[in-house]
Each structure stands twice: as C-alpha cells, then as structure tokens.
C-alpha cells in the first residue's frame, strides 16, 4: 500500500469513526430522554442505563487475549467519553456452569465471552438467548475481516449445530495444532525439519537410536486425541472433515484415514517414538518435558506459545506444520457474544469493532497470541510472527479441521479412554476404531 493510499484509508477510517460517534451521541441523547421518561413512570434501572457498557470475560489478564481486549476497552472509552465501562473478570468454570441461567435473566452484561461448540454456544443460540449478529457483522465489515473457517465456530443453525446458519458470536483469536521442536537437538544431529510422515519417522528413529524418546505425549489428557486425529487428517480431504464434523455425509471408521491413524499410533509405540508409559502423563507434564529438553518434539496447540516463550531459555525452539498434512486440529477461539436481553447492544457492537481493529489484533500478535485479523507486517514479536504465519497458512488453505471430540456429546471421554487402551496395548487398532465409531454413531444427531 502506498503512503497516499494509507493516508487516504486512515482518513476514511477516521471519517467513518467520527460519523459513527456522532450517530452514537444522537442515539444516547434519545435513549437518555426515554430512560428519564421511564423512570418518571416508576420503571428503569441501572442495568438499562444507556450510558453504561458491561463486559464479562474469563481470559486471564496476562494472556494475549486479556491484554488485547483490555486495550480494546481503553480505545472504546476514548471514543465514548460519556459512557461508563463496567468490566467483570469471570472464570471459565463460572460461565460454563451458570452461563445459560445468566443469559436467561434480565440482569445480563452487554458482551460476554462464551465457549464455542454445539453443547455451549450452540445450545444457548438454539434457546434464543443470543443476539443474531449476522446483519451487524455484514454492515460493519466483520465478515470481511474474519476468515470463513474462523467464522465457523460462531455460526449455529436452528438446531444449535455449529458450522452454518446465523452468526451468534465473534471469535477474535485463533488456535491450531502443530509440531513444536527443539532446533538445537536437530542441528546437533544434522537433521532437517521433516516435510513428510516418512521423513518425520526417520528423524524420530535417529533419536531412538540414541535412547531418546522423541515425542512428548500426554496420553492421560487431550494431546493423544489430537495426535491420532492429526494422523487421520494427514490422509483426509475437506469432504472427510465436513462429514465427520458437520454430518454432511457418511463417516466410515474403517476408512484409510482412521485406519492409518490407529495403526500408526500403535506402531509408533512399538518403535519407541512415543512411550507406552505416556498414559500416566498429562498435557502439562508433557509440555514441561519438552521445555526441559527431555523430548525433541511435542505435537500440541498454539496455546503453549506464551509459556514456551517465557520458560524455554536453554535451547532454540520453533514449530512446523504436521508433515504431509493440509489440515490441522484448530479453530477460531471462544466467542464474544451479545446476549438477547442486553440493554445496550449498539455499545456492544462498537466494542466488538474495537476487538477486531488492526490496532487490537496487532497487539494480540505482539503479546504472543494468534490474532485473526492482524496486519502481519505490524507483528514484530518473533513468537507472534510464527503463530500468525502458521495460522494464516491454515486459514488461507481452509485447513482448520476443528477438534475430534466436537461432533457428539460426551465424545471426548470415549476418545481419550480408547486412545489410552491403544497406547498401552490393551486394545488393538481395530478395537479402537470399533469403539470410537460406535460412540459417534450413537451420539450423531438425527437432524442431519
């Protein structure tokens, strides 16, 4: 973009913002008059104050999301000098347990962070407790800012199933699974970053020859479910993903992809690439093992970026896409939603504008997060640059394949227990496939 173009764009952005602010002032004056009239008749409350924006989220203040959203609130305050912002820090558990009850009351915030997925955001969207943001997103350009695969987690149909229908939530960040690796360990052996599964196996074989288990794995936790799903994705196409995640076609758990995933996992245990004892290791300990340099590889998500950035000081590390795969587990992040009963929706929409601004998105990237609408050239933090590049590569190729436990209720427990049996050798690959296939077919909605 030329300097003149940039200046023109900045001028247009300022004019748009000024016009929007003017409209907001007019709207606030009108709403204030109505509020005073209502109060005179004995109605009204602080909750319906048109000069107040109430926001709740559960991201920690230290996280990239918490930092950038707080910055967005400061921008909102600067643009709305007559508005009081009431922010409340919640926990994930609070919203998970009480979210529907909160949304079904009249005492709701104007913006709240809500978990993505059929059983969470989909459930309250189906119940009519969320504002349909589709028209507002079109008007304000959010649909142009958010890649289609990121929007997926915010869209729910009339049955509350994710992936199509109206837009009920805005994901302002992303997450994805890749391979973390110890650059120094590979360099010491003269090994290159693998680009195919065969090359990856040869690299891991070089470590096992020296008595080193190459792959950190938490098989008592989500990493094993992600690894098996990633192996299946390396043999899959887009239709396979859509059939599995969105019930757009039949799912065969004895097909090439699932069979390869189950058999390869069993083979990697036998070859020593992963330890059978990993069934006693959780995600945190697997990540710590990578941090200490015990394992040269760790297949997991971008949510580790910040921790590794601050804690790994004894070696150089990086990430690469899972070899030979066009897809990876990942998605847009949890959602910012506007409750149906929110009193100040226009203010809520203005705040959502701020969370998707280049300034906020760039700040998220420089805090080590995965923004969904950043200017890549403005992200200067090396870890942020790595995360943005990896996420952009996936979204540009429509390669986000979501997570294996999402399609049906209670599936995570089945996937985890069956994966543990596969790793410790108490079940065969075929028994694993039979079990996860039966659970999927039993839980699959009849509406699709």
Describe the overall structure.
The protein is an alpha/beta fold. Helix content is 49%, strand content 11%. It contains 19 helices and 12 strands. It has helices at 3-40, 64-79, 92-103, 121-126, 134-140, 142-145, 148-151, 183-188, 197-208, 222-233, 238-246, 256-270, 283-291, 305-311, 345-355, 358-366, 382-396, 411-424, 429-443, and strands at residues 52-57, 84-89, 111-114, 155-156, 166-167, 170-171, 174-182, 215-216, 297-301, 317-320, 330-332, 335-337. Helix 2 packs antiparallel against helix 16 (358-366), helix 10 (222-233) packs across helix 12 and helix 12 packs across helix 19 (429-443). The longest helix has 38 residues, at 3-40. Residues 1-47 have low confidence and may be disordered.
In short:
Helix content is 49%, strand content 11%. The chain has 448 residues and is an alpha/beta fold.
């Amino acid at each position: 973009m030329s300097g003149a173009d940039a200046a023109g764009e900045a001028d247009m952005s300022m004019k748009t913002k000024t016009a929007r602010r003017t409209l907001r002032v007019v709207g606030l004056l009108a709403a204030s008059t109505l509020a005073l009239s209502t109060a005179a008749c004995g109605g009204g409350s602080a909750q319906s104050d048109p000069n107040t924006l109430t926001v709740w989220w559960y991201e920690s203040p230290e996280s990239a999301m918490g930092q950038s959203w707080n910055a967005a609130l400061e921008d909102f305050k600067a643009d709305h000098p007559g508005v009081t912002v009431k922010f409340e820090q919640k926990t994930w558990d609070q919203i998970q347990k009480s979210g529907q009850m909160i949304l079904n009351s009249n005492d709701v915030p104007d913006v709240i962070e809500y978990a993505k997925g059929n059983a969470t955001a989909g459930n309250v969207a189906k119940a009519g407790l969320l504002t349909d943001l589709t028209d507002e997103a079109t008007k304000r350009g959010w649909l142009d800012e958010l890649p289609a695969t990121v929007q997926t987690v915010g869209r729910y149909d009339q049955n509350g199933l994710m992936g199509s229908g109206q837009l009920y939530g805005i994901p302002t960040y992303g997450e994805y699974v890749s391979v973390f690796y110890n650059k120094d360990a590979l360099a010491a052996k003269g090994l290159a970053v693998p680009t195919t599964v065969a090359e990856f196996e040869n690299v891991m074989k070089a470590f096992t020859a020296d008595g080193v288990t190459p792959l950190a794995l938490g098989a008592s936790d989500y990493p094993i479910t992600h690894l098996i799903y990633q192996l299946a994705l390396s043999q899959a196409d887009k239709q396979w993903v859509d059939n599995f995640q969105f019930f757009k076609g039949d799912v065969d758990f004895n097909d090439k992809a699932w069979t390869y995933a189950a058999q390869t996992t069993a083979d990697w245990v036998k070859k020593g690439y992963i330890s059978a004892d990993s069934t006693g290791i959780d995600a945190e300990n697997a990540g710590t093992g990578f941090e200490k340099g015990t394992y040269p590889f760790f297949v997991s998500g971008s949510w580790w970026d910040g921790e590794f950035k601050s804690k790994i000081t004894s070696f150089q590390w990086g990430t690469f896409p899972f070899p030979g795969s066009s897809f990876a587990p990942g998605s847009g992040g949890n959602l910012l939603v506007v409750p149906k009963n929110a009193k100040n929706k226009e203010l809520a929409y203005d705040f959502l504008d701020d969370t998707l601004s280049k300034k906020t998105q760039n700040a998220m990237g420089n805090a080590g997060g995965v923004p969904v609408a950043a200017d890549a050239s403005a992200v200067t933090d090396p870890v942020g640059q790595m995360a943005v590049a990896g996420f952009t590569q996936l979204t540009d190729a429509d390669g986000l394949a979501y997570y294996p436990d999402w399609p049906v209720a209670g599936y995570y427990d089945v996937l985890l227990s069956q994966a543990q049996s596969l790793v410790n050798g108490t079940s065969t690959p075929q028994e694993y496939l039979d079990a996860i296939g039966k659970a999927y077919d039993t839980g699959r909605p009849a509406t699709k």
